[in-house]
Design goal:
By secondary structure, the protein is an alpha+beta fold. It is built from six helices and nine strands, in the order ββααββααββββαβα.
Length: 231
Amino acid sequence: MYAECYNENHKLIEISREKQKATKKQKGFYFDFICKTCEKRTQNYDRYASLVLTNRSPNSPESLSVKKERFLGNHRDEGLSFEQWNNLDFEKFQKFVLASILRTHCSGCIKGDIQLNKSHFKQIFSVYENKTALDDELYPIVLYRLKDSDPFKRHVVLPYFKRYAGHHLIEFMGAGYVFNLYVSSHRKPEYVNLFRLKKDGSLTLPLMDFKQMVLFQRTLDLVKTTLGFKI
């Protein structure tokens, strides 16, 4: 699903906010850290997500089954618009997000002010493994879609921890979307309840520029310096 983000010049860059510099640059990123059976299972979820999130196969049953409608919200003065998606396969899409985070955790790549502790790891893994009692509230998932004109739309950001409005969440980016998984134990903000992926297969996505994201505000200077962007 990240094929459009890669070409012969692609590279992995790790940015350290503490050291104010890029600490790692390498061509490609290939690593085996889970068994083949588990990897094959996650690839099934990856495939589903790639079909509904990208235009790689617009006539596939998976892509055609998801109904998408764009509309303007209440913040017209801010130029915000939204997409309403329906008929998603909740289990496959949720497990795609959870698998992305669990694989990153197992590879030791999750960075940030906190680490994924044993309690959250066990609970997230339990949700991932459960095939009967689907849950959309314990670890809610919120998506943002980057606008087509956004220069960051083709970039990939590996999962990392951040704190926003008193809540811990794991954020990653790829295929023109920003994925948020809330891991705080207390009551979630109202906007999370409004926008989260629901087990009835519905999802409301704000359409935003990367400049409007918290991630952008924290890393803009480093990204500009490292990648040479003129924004």
